[in-house]
Design goal:
The chain is an alpha/beta fold. The chain has twelve helices and five strands. It is 40% helix and 9% strand. The chain is elongated and about 85 Å long.
Length: 328
């Protein structure tokens, strides 16, 4: 029988071990029958046997469950490596969605969910760490999620992100954007943002209401002034404010939609919204921000050198992609 390596002993295996022990079957024979090493069976008997009753399956399983629960408390983020990675990326301004999404991409499977990271950040035992300060909105307590109409079927002509071409996904072709709306005080107004995936350039327009009419008007103003090669598509979330997305077809633009509650699929935009929040923190009344002030903020963000761009700025890469030379 093929060895099972380091997989944990299961409840069914504990039932068999208890039965064979009662039948005086030797440890090496039990190991052979289960396809496990002699040492793993010895360790199981030593750790989980009852002092008086000997090896009882239900008692052994209870002890194993208790140990597993304690291990989870010691390592709330699964392992020391994941713990260190999460802390590092939080300090660099990554959101839990971005962290979980990147771990999944790098490992080929889900390592940890963004919800687990949020629970860790807001756990009472971790309050002294003030990890919430690394989140864009810096909220001391988690607020119940407010629905923004995330209903896949309600968005007309919706095309899933999973149908997006490889050249967009791998940032090969220039001119593909990710959009979202940053909410203002009391959720009455907002700033619609779009981030270009290749250059990381950020564009933004104020909206007086978070509504589909306002959003599409902002997008048409934003993209209408760009050359066609700079505005090929945008990827959005499933909020009601994006219901009129199909009007971007007038600019020969395609639209794609991320999965519900998967903001990490629009990680470029999410990162930039976090940066924008450093200038305009949660609770800012956008009525007090005029267009010129917003433009100055966006210019400052777009003129910062980025490591992912080889320390060029988004503005430089955007201009180069259009064949435009920026004066030194």
């Amino acid at each position: 029988m093929q060895r099972k390596g380091h997989k944990k002993i299961t409840s069914d295996e504990r039932d068999k071990i208890a039965q064979w022990i009662s039948q005086k079957v030797g440890v090496r024979e039990i190991a052979r029958r289960l396809g496990r090493s002699h040492s793993s069976i010895c360790a199981e008997l030593e750790r989980n046997a009852h002092k008086e009753a000997g090896y009882v399956a239900i008692h052994a399983q209870t002890l194993a469950n208790e140990r597993k629960a304690k291990a989870r408390k010691r390592h709330p983020l699964k392992s020391d490596e994941v713990f260190a990675y999460v802390h590092l990326k939080l300090r660099r301004g990554w959101s839990p969605e971005m962290i979980a999404g990147r771990l999944k991409k790098d490992n080929g499977q889900r390592v940890i969910s963004h919800e687990t990271i949020y629970q860790y950040i807001y756990a009472p035992a971790n309050a002294h760490l003030n990890l919430y300060e690394y989140l864009p909105w810096k909220r001391t307590k988690r607020r119940k999620k407010r629905g923004r109409g995330v209903h896949k079927s309600r968005i007309p002509q919706r095309v899933s992100i999973h149908e997006r071409p490889r050249d967009i996904n791998e940032r090969i072709e220039f001119g593909h954007w990710e959009g979202d709306t940053v909410e203002g005080k009391w959720h009455r107004n907002g700033i619609h943002t779009e981030a270009e995936r290749v250059s990381r350039l950020l564009a933004a327009e104020k909206v007086s209401r978070i509504a589909s009419e306002e959003t599409i008007a902002a997008q048409l103003r934003m993209f209408g002034n760009m050359p066609e090669e700079a505005r090929r598509s945008t990827t959005l979330d499933n909020g009601r404010e994006n219901h009129l997305h199909y009007e971007l077809a007038a600019l020969h633009m395609k639209t794609y939609f991320a999965d519900p509650y998967s903001s990490w699929q629009r990680g470029t935009n999410e990162y930039h919204n976090g940066v924008l929040r450093r200038y305009l923190p949660k609770g800012t009344n956008f009525d007090t921000i005029d267009d010129e002030e917003l433009k100055d903020i966006i210019d400052e963000i777009n003129n910062r050198p980025r490591k992912c761009l080889g320390w060029a700025t988004p503005k430089e890469v955007f201009a180069k992609s259009l064949g435009v030379r920026i004066p030194s």
